[in-house]
Amino acid sequence: MHLSLVLSLFVSILFAVRARAETHTVKFVNQCGFGTPALVYNGENILTGDSYTSNGPFSGIAYLQTGYCNTNGENCTLMEMTLINPTCAGCGSSADISLISPHVYSVETSFAYYNGCDGEGQTCSSPNCSDAAFFMPNDNFVQKECQANDVSNS
Q1: 3-state SS class at 6
Q2: Can you tell me the distance from the alpha carbon of 102 to that of 88, in angstroms, rounded to the nearest whole number?
Q3: How many CA atoms does the CB half-sphere of 9 hold within 13 Å?
Q4: Is residue 131 classed as helix, strand or coil in its secondary structure?
Q5: DSSP assignment of 87-123, as one string?
Q6: How far apart are CA 121 and CA 126, in angstroms?
């Protein structure tokens, strides 16, 4: 009887650990004094405050709606992100800033990972930030990756 109780407890703990889902938070800090942060997933702005938490992998785009941006951030500085727990080497989270047309520089934009890969990120502070943003589709060196579980972005 004692062995079955220990085995039952072990199986319960095993299932509880496996059932724990990944979570990722995207947090906005608007230091411009104008505009409204937008977080777009499947063509819809899902942001209702300063942060959004996903209970599972998340892939979307973000920008500061200044009144000139279209739904997918056209005419503005765009941040793209995929936040996912890695299942193999190189299969984790990735984020970048894009100024590939029709996206254009509109405001200083930066991001940084936290809750894993803390501080790793990118800043585009001028229209000529070619070392920090995509201008051409093959500017892959500007992407910032993170291989930590439950990593978040701000």
Answers
A1: helix
A2: 34
A3: 6
A4: coil
A5: SSTT-SEEEEEE--TT----S-EEEEEESSSTT-EEE
A6: 16
**Which of the pair, 13 or 151, is modelled with greater confidence?**
151
Mean pLDDT, residues 78-102 taken together: 95
Residues 6+ apart with CB under 8 A from 2: none
pTM, two decimals, is: 0.85
Tell me how far apart the alpha carbons of residues 100 and 137 are, in angstroms, rounded to a whole number.
Answer: 7
Per the structure block, which two tokens stand in for 6?
């220990």
Q: What is the mean pLDDT of the chain?
A: 87
Unique residue bearing structure tokens 């984790």: 92
> Three-state SS for 15?
helix
Can you give the chain as a three-state secondary structure string? CHHHHHHHHHHHHHHHHHHCCCCEEEECCCCCCCCEEEEEECCEECCCCCEEEECCCEEEEEEEECCCCCCCCCCCCEEEEEECCCCCCCCCEEEEEECCCCCCCCCCEEEEEECCCCCCEEEECCCCCCCCEECCCCCHHHCEEECCCCCEEC
Neighbours of 26 (CB within 10 A): 25
pLDDT score of 48: 85
Pairing of strands 44-45, 51-54: unpaired
